Amino acid sequence: MDSITHIALGACVGEAFFGRGFGKKAMLWGALAQSAPDIDFVAAFWMNTDEYLLAHRGFTHSILFALLLAPVLGLVAERIHHPRNIRLGKWMLFFLTEIGIHLFLDGFNNYGVGWFEPFSHYRVSFNAIYVADPFFSAWAAIAVILLLRLHAYHPRRRFWWRFGLILPLMYLGSCVINKLVINSEVKENLHNQHISYSRYFTTPAPFTNLLWYVVAGDDDGYHVGFRSILDKRRDMDFTYFPRNDSLLKPVANHEELQHLIRFSQKFYTAEMWGDTLVFNDLRFGQIKGWQDPKGRFVFHYLLNHEEDNMLVVQRGRFAGWDEKVWKGFFRRIWGN
Question: Do 99 and 31 contact (CB within 8 A), yes or no?
Answer without folding.
Answer: no
